[in-house]
Batch of 2 targets.
Target 1
Amino acid sequence: MSSLELLYEVDGLPAFDLPEELATLYGGRFGLAPPLVYANFVETLDGVVAIRSEPRTNRIVSGNSETDRFVMGLLRACADVVLLGSGTLRGSPASVWTAERAYPAAADAFAELRSRLGLPPEPALAVLTASGSLDPAHPALERGAVVLTTEQGAERCRGRLASAVEVVPLPGETAVDPGAAVAFLRERGHRTILSEAGPHVFGSLLAAGLVDELFLTVSPLLAGRSEPGGRLGLVEGEELLPGRAAPARLLGVRRDDAHLFLRYGISSPA
Ligand SMILES: NC(=O)c1ccc[n+]([C@@H]2O[C@H](COP(=O)([O-])OP(=O)(O)OC[C@H]3O[C@@H](n4cnc5c(N)ncnc54)[C@H](OP(=O)(O)O)[C@@H]3O)[C@@H](O)[C@H]2O)c1
């Protein structure tokens, strides 16, 4: 891939001591200011983030962008924990959420960055499910994860998941209380929480005022829609406008050809 082209960035963003390869590919400095919850998405020009019928929906939405995979890897490389919802786990039955898996060509540089940041070799994984309906054979669960669920969900998981999976019941019935989930991860010492959850969990985090930053790749593709529910927008399951406006602050804009890489600061909805 070629390096990202920096088009705009606000002054005063945090800057990590990046390995040179990462700084070159990213087109300059990058950093985060923990503690924070930061989310990463790729969407089409018309705002579609997932085509539910397609197994490799992220690749389709991103137009198979290597640069998007690199940014995903960089964001994972800085995370203490990656947070998913069960819908995202189900949608990617062969994935594991590591920096190396996102962009193998920079694996050594990602490992070096994690070491410079004092992080373990891989981020932890946390999965939100109210129902407890998870595939025990999913490779990401077999490697070890914490499942944040409800009392009923914990009951359903009992004895079904690999021994490397910890099941934690939290408040909530049809959805896990997002505030309790983030508080639990913080109590575990996770200061940088990367949400790679889909639009339902993202909506619930957003509505609860828990998201600090959004990294949004806009691909130059138009997805279109016909039947409701088949294609998901960036936020699902929550309505914010007109009453709950929370204008995002533009922190940065990068470009790779016709793909845009946007970084926003997010405030709590009113
Ligand atoms: N384009 C991108 O950048 C991007 C990023 C991420 C995901 N995706 C795609 O998005 C699709 C999945 O979307 P999704 O919205 O279904 O996934 P999701 O938000 O990751 O998972 C949603 C599920 O999480 C569980 N859940 C537990 N607590 C919740 C809470 N507080 N709020 C909301 N949900 C909660 C529910 O399932 P239970 O029945 O288990 O309780 C719910 O159905 C996949 O195709 C995935 O590949 C795309």
Target 2
Amino acid sequence: MTVLDVGCGAGFASLGLARLVGEEGLVIAADLQPRMLNFVKERAIREGLSNRIHIHLCSHDRIGLQEELDFTVAFFMLHEVPDIQVFLKEINSLLKPGGRFFITEPKIHVGLIAFNEMMRKAEDVGFEIAEKPRVRFGRTVLLSKSE
Ligand SMILES: C[S@@+](CC[C@H](N)C(=O)[O-])C[C@H]1O[C@@H](n2cnc3c(N)ncnc32)[C@H](O)[C@@H]1O
């Protein structure tokens, strides 16, 4: 699988995802802070995973990838994005049909009304809600791009 960890920060999820995708897979760890991407790069080298983790520098308003994705993770980052609808639309365009998008937001920063509004925007750009998994301290949804 080709997996995007968008807003990867120091790469906690990216490293775990790199183990899950195996030797044939690829994780793209993307963030707008070069400092965070350097952390991810160093940790990937230390843990012997650098061949399956690529780092990618985003701009504030565009992810800017060419790859087709099977799965995307946005862990505790969506509330930081300036235009959520534009961002969701770009993720939707990068995913293959049937691709999945896992979003979790911190309850402390994102109330239920704001989270429901995010899900409504996701449906507006062509996602379906596949599941609402439980994540500790999080408001979470697994979205699916129509086939
Ligand atoms: C709260 S941190 C979470 C980091 C990581 N996902 C984790 O759970 O440890 C949010 C991260 O999202 C990044 N970020 C915010 N807006 C972004 C955007 N528009 N595109 C890419 N990354 C963004 C920030 O630079 C930061 O590293």
